[in-house]
Amino acid sequence: MFYDHLASPIGLIEITASSTGVQSVYFVDKIENPDNSNQWSQQCKRELQAYFSAQLQHFSVPLDQNGTDFQKQVWEALLTVEYGKTASYLEIAQKINNPKAIRAVGSANGKNPLSIIVPCHRIIGSNGTLTGYAGGLERKSWLLQHESPEQLNLS
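Predicted structure:
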């Protein structure tokens, strides 16, 4: 297991990678695993820095996701929600052709280990309200505001 850390505008982020890709991106309170980065954790760190400086909208670092088949299906659907856009849990359930699985989609969304990269922060309630985010609603709100079109500074 390889670790790297990034001090972001909304808190400390820990990146975990395997030899084949990034496994997790979590907000943490303190560094418990010392940095012993590899090419994937370093690439992820660079891409996150570019994201936070409004220079990147799409991540290209390889992912090494661990989860159930259903979770992976939901996480793949999350990747289709474009930068600066939001979707509801119902819309994600419909994308995976399982419109009655709204609660299960919410649960899989909450277990997403790749914060920001797999954009679970872009999923909101059907009524337009911000609902749960493992990193906290303040971070979710910040991320959505950061991605709003008037924030873009791409060349």
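Summary: Residues 151-155 have pLDDT under 50 and may be disordered.
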